[in-house]
Structure formats: structure tokens, C-alpha cells
Amino acid sequence: MNTSVGGPCSIRAWPISTRRPFALARRPLKGCVSLIKPRMLAAIVALFLGSTAAAAPAGKLWSLLLSREYSLGLAAALCLVAGSNALNNYLDRDIDSLMGRTRRRALPSAMLSEVEALTFSLALIATSLTLIGFVASELLWAALLGLASYIALYTLIFKRRTGLNVVAATPAVAAPILAGWVVGRGFLDASGLAVAALSMTWGLAHFWSLTMIFREDYRRAGVPTLPGWLGVDRASKLIVSVSIATASLSYVPAILGDYGLLYVVGASALNTVLLALSLSLAFKPISGRRAWRLYKFTAPYILLLLLVAALDAHA
Fold it and tell me: In terms of domains, do 157 and 215 share one?
């Protein structure tokens, strides 16, 4: 005997009505995750961890990493980078909606309202700065350097004005390296400055190779890029130049006596690939595939270099 009421349509409607509240609840959560750019967040925090490991004296690394103060500092770094990424997404919401690469982000796809996004980003930044003030006030300068570079100089001032806009963001790339080095070694020395400078030239090679791939996407959104400003031929030659600078700077810590043979061999292997891919792009700058290969290799380059440095220091 059929006991259903309203026929089969009412039976099929039942799971839809029960799942709908959960689907609506998941949308803001998904939006918040999208807003903080998880892959970029992981990469920047990994730079902080890698720099600490590369700088820490032998025998003291694990006690440092497992300390309460370091855990709180790491939480502050997570909040700061997440909040900065979210605020960048809020400020760039108009151009993100025009680019194929970014139109599925939280604000263009209406996962969150603008008020929710702004509140979320400012709350994360405020939490981070409060934590840093209580736990590691000596590193407040690094946090402010990252914020000033990424949000003020890059996002608000230079991103929409010049093809050299990425240069304004390079201090933000160096900030986690500088902070991690100070935490690991206890002070900032010549090797730490060299690695920070290396991170800035590396950042240029990495992000400029991305603009070589998506230069038309950026052009449609009205964002100037290096290849759009100089042309692909000259832009590719400049990428070779910053790749050479990156490779050269990688040997400075070894010359200063901080690392030995293991580091030199590892750095040389990474630099060989970096220079080969950069030169390959320069020979055929219109090739999106060659630019993509360089972009994908440069992504882990500096993390691998810090890993080799840490292995050399603590092996």
C-alpha cells in the first residue's frame, strides 16, 4: 500500500529541503577560504618556517619550533598573511571580476558580501598585530613592512599604474624571510639580508613569468604588466637578468661561511634549472608553455633552497 502523500514529486523534494540550509551555510565558509588564498598563505608561512630552520643554530631548532612562543608567533603569521590576502581580494574585487583567472574568487562569485569580506580581513589583521605585540613585539616591523608593501604600495598605489608594479610587492616577499631569520638566529646578519634580497629577485622572476602567461587577461582588466609595458622580448630578457641575480645571491651565505658543500651542490642544481628555463623563455618569449614551466619551477625554488640550507646546517 502506497502511504506517500502528494505523489512522487513530494518525495523527491524532501532531500532538497533538508540539504539547502547546509548548502547555504557552506557558502560563506567556502568564501572565507577562497578569500585568504590558501596556496599563497601556505607558501608565505612556509618561507617563515624555512627561514627559521635555515638560520637556527645546530641543536636548537626543535626546541625553538616546539616552544609556546613560536607557536603563537606562527599563529600570528597565519592571521597576518590570511588577512592581507583577504584585504587584497576586497580591494581588487572590481578587476577580479574582469579576469578569467580570478572571476571565481569569493567576491566576484558572490560567496560573501563586501562588508563580510572587509570585516573578516580586518579582524584577521587586528588579531595578528595584537598577537605579535604581546608575543614578539621585536618583529612588529616585519609585519608592518609586509602590510605596507603588499597592501599600500602594491595593491593601492602601483598595481594599476605601472608595469613595474610587482617590484612594490617584493618587500612583502622578504618580510617572512627576515622575521624567520631573526627568530632562528636571534639577530639579522649579512646572510639573512642576502637571503631576503634573493627572495625579492626570485619574486620578480616568479611573478613576471606569470604575467607573460596571462598578459592578455591583465590587459583586459586594465592592469599594466611588464610584457605589456616593455614587450615580451625585453620582458623575457629582464626575467633572465633577475634569475641571474637570484642565482648569484644564493651563494652569498656559503661565501660567508654559513653553509657548506651540501648547500652549494643543492643551490647549483636549482640554479642550473632556473637559468635554463629563463634562457629558454628568452629564446622564444611568446611561448606560453615555456613561461608556464618557468612559473611552475620558480614556485618551489626558494623553499627548496631553504630546505637545502636547513639540511646543511643541521645534518
Answer: no
What is the distance between the alpha carbons of residues 112 and 105, in angstroms, rounded to a whole number? Answer: 10
User: 146 and 196: one domain?
Assistant: no
Q: What is the pLDDT of residues 53-91, one digit of tens each?
A: 999 998 899 999 999 989 999 999 999 999 999 999 999
CB 129 within 8 A of CB 89: no
User: Which grid cell sits at 250?
Assistant: 644564493
pLDDT reported for residue 15:
43
Q: What is the pLDDT of residues 156-189, one digit of tens each?
A: 999 999 999 999 999 999 999 999 999 999 999 9
Distance in angstroms (rounded) separating the CA atoms of residues 226 and 216: 12
Set of cell numbers at residue 273: 634549472
Structural domains in the chain (count)? 2
Query: For the residues of 51-88, what is the DSSP string, one character each?
Result: HHHHHSPTT-HHHHHTSHHHHHHHHHHHHHHHHHHHHH
Let me know if residue 236 belongs to a domain.
Answer: yes
Are residues 193 and 151 part of one domain? no
Question: 105: domain CATH number?
Answer: 1.10.357
**Host domain of residue 103:** 32-162
CB 131 within 8 A of CB 79: yes
Going by C-beta distance under 8 Å and a sequence separation of 6 or more, which residues neighbour residue 219?
Answer: 225, 228
**Has residue 120 been placed in a domain?**
yes
**Please, are residues 252 and 188 in contact by the beta-carbon 8 Å criterion?**
no
Q: Which residues contact 148 (CB under 8 A, 6 or more apart)?
A: 171
